[in-house]
Design a protein that fits this description.
This protein is mainly beta. The chain folds into 2 domains: 90 residues, Jelly Rolls (Sandwich); 183 residues, no CATH class. Helix content is 0%, strand content 43%. β8 and β9 form a beta hairpin. It starts with 10 loop residues before the first strand and ends with a strand.
Length: 287
């Protein structure tokens, strides 16, 4: 409200109101009784100088506050658990001051590595042009027909052009592929594999066969016996199905998207050639 900021009471938007009034306060929660996703296109009855905080309230049926018209946002704001949007009314338009999103995971794949080469990926599904990446994971997602242990460079860039002068940050990591030798069953905490190269204690590994799942190595790989020890499996995995290293990086990386496409621009470069075509999956968590 003009002249003061009252955050004492949370006012919930109406279930079917896509242009809700905000003249009754400053702190609002997205509707919790609507049965489908919905989009808010304007906040009505704002006063010049008014600050409004919008909180996520019903992630099962998502509210989107749409960028455009009199809503001058840094891209659409999409509701999620613990999400928040802060707006200032200048008398005509609502200007975004800040936002917070809950943890959102997006994924994609770099496909078809057959040489020491680079592949690019533009990850979509972002609600702003400057997401805060908090964790990412990469792993070989197909069967390259043999054991592999290859170094990669993962780079984040500001735009689609992905030139080195737009480099935000890069990471060097190794990805490995081997196969279970005899299969592994739900509840197992050890397994014999074809190769343990590139694996160390506390690595995350992923069983690709059947229902894929991740487990964590709890001991140093036994090189002579080719044995891995890990947290208990939840599913069965057949003989000769893939076991891969998951390169997991927990970091706080502010990613800037200067071309305004609300994307994360990535390049993955293999520093050696695989024996056969290889695909690499990536998952990114961001706020």
């Amino acid at each position: 409200m003009l002249g003061r900021l009252s955050l004492a009471d949370v006012i919930t938007f109406g279930n079917d109101d896509l242009t809700p009034d905000v003249d009754g306060g400053n702190l609002f929660q997205c509707a919790v009784g609507h049965g489908a996703d919905r989009t808010i296109t304007m906040l009505d009855a704002g006063q010049e100088g008014q600050v409004v905080v919008v909180l996520g309230g019903n992630p099962a049926n998502i509210t989107t506050v749409q960028d455009g018209g009199n809503m001058d946002l840094d891209g659409d704001w999409v509701e999620s658990q613990d999400a928040m949007l802060v707006l200032l009314f200048d008398g005509t338009d609502w200007k975004e001051i800040d936002r917070k999103t809950g943890i959102i995971t997006v994924g994609g794949a770099f496909t078809g590595f057959v040489a020491a080469e680079s592949k690019t990926l533009n990850l979509t599904g972002l609600s702003s042009r400057n997401p805060l990446v908090t964790r990412f994971r990469l792993y070989i997602s197909n069967d390259p027909t043999g054991d592999e242990n290859i170094q990669f460079r993962l780079s984040f860039y500001e735009s689609d052009s992905m030139t080195e002068d737009e480099l935000i940050h890069d990471y060097y990591l190794n990805l490995s592929y081997t196969e279970t030798n005899g299969g592994a069953l739900a509840g197992h905490v050890t397994d014999v594999v074809d190769d343990v190269s590139g694996l160390v204690m506390y690595d995350m590994i992923r069983y690709l066969g059947g229902t894929a799942e991740n487990v964590r190595l709890t001991a140093v790989p036994n090189v002579p016996a080719l044995t891995l020890t890990f947290t208990a499996l939840l599913n069965d995995h057949a003989n000769n199905t893939g076991v891969v290293r998951v390169a997991e990086v927990a970091d706080v990386l502010s990613v800037i998207d200067t071309d305004g496409s609300n994307e994360i621009h990535c390049r993955l470069e293999s520093l050696a050639a695989p024996a056969a075509a290889m695909d690499v999956a990536m998952e990114i968590e961001f706020q």
